[in-house]
Amino acid sequence: MDVKKVLLVKYGEISLRKGNRAHFEHRLLDAIRARVSGLGGAGVISVRREQGRFLVENTEGDLDVAAVLPRIRHIFGITGFCHAVKTTARDIASLCEIGRDFFVGQGFDDVTFKVETKRSDKKYPMTSTEISMEIGALIFDEGFAVDLHKPDKVLWVEIRNDVYFYIDSEKGVGGLPYGSSGKGILLLSGGFDSPVAGYLMARRGVEIIAVYFHSPPFVSERAEDKVRDLAAELAKYTGSVKLYSVPFTEIQLFLKEQVSEVKLTIFLKRAMLHIASRLAEQEKALCLVTGDSVGQVASQTVHSLAAVDTAAALPVLRPLAAMDKQAIIDIAQEIGTYDISIRPYEDCCTVFVAKHPENKPNKGAIEGIEARFAGELARLVGEALGSAEIYSV
């Protein structure tokens, strides 16, 4: 009997898409193929659709799952990975033997079990229940007790174009295929919030282009290194991240002279949105992404956000808006950015923040003040963009 180790890849909500489902599936297939390219060894790794799943297999024999899985574990759009064996056998006697051998070969000791069969091939001459009963009988004969309600282990049998058996599965990160929802400009600092915001938007299919505002000599080069490392951590999920490092010192000094200290943070954030909007036009992005959490600090009150947002030429998405700090930190720890964010290198906003910033600015008044120096600010924004460093991480 032809039996070999393979990986079944499950995807979630994209299977519910109707007219554009194929578009999402192709993006996900391309992402998986790109990550496993060159890993075949003696054979070739094939990735193809298999009736609502993706099948990853080595054309010459068993798949080296330990080599493949780390490459694709973080791909957005994947909900799970099933460590499976595949067979071309179709007769029930062969399937019973394969199912028994696969289950017994796991080395389980004193566990209860049941068999669950999914029969996608409705032409198969037995029902799902009948298949489960036949296979389960052989496993029962090996000394394992049946528990149909709360078994310790479930042997899954999927009757598709071929037949698959699996027990263990691993959870994927879910979401939508990266880049399937257009582009966004992420305002990336060295704190906890903005990398998590970038991760959450990327998980919804938004291709992230990051912009960092660098302010030497008020911050060290280590601060920029920290942000580049954060972008590299995000790239584990996205494949790569384009990062703009924009010199911001001249703009900060200019605004410090133009506005009162209590309003400075608002105007600094507006300047950042002006720059991000220009980058969005250049990169053909459709939105801006920030790490704001409503009420977390004075510049993130609803009044402050309203006063800041009029500087943006595009929608500003805030995926952390309703989260508290601990929830954000929990995600940072989960995705690997926490240990980088706690490095003690301040960014430009931290250095210039007032002791008691205004937390209920009047939007109209803010716009009126900025109108007085809008021309000079636009010139400085243009110069900053012209001097930006671009990294691919």
Helix/strand layout:
Layout: E1 3-11, H1 21-36, E2 45-49, E3 53-58, H2 65-72, E4 78-87, H3 92-104, E5 112-119, H4 128-141, E6 145-146, E7 153-159, E8 163-171, E9 183-187, H5 193-203, E10 207-214, H6 221-238, E11 242-247, H7 249-258, H8 261-283, E12 287-289, H9 302-309, E13 316-317, H10 325-335, H11 338-341, H12 348-352, H13 363-371, H14 374-386, E14 389-392
Parallel strand pairs: 5-6, 5-7, 9-10, 9-12, 10-11, 12-13
Antiparallel strand pairs: 1-3, 1-4, 2-3, 4-8, 7-8, 11-14
Helix pairs in contact: 3-4, 5-6, 5-10, 7-8, 7-14, 8-9, 8-14, 9-13
Radius of gyration using CA atoms only = 27 Å
Q: Largest sheet, order of strands side by side? A: 2-3-1-4-8-7-5-6
Mean pLDDT comes to 91
What's the end-to-end separation, in Å? 46 Å
Instruction: Work out the strand percent.
Output: 15-25%
Described by its quaternary structure, the protein is single chain
The residue ranges in which pLDDT falls below 50 over 5 or more consecutive positions are none
Tally the beta strands. Answer: 14
Helix content class: 40-55%
Helical run tally: 14
Largest sheet: 8 strands, mixed
H and E order: EHEEHEHEHEEEEHEHEHHEHEHHHHHE
Class by alpha and beta content: alpha/beta
Spatial shape:
elongated
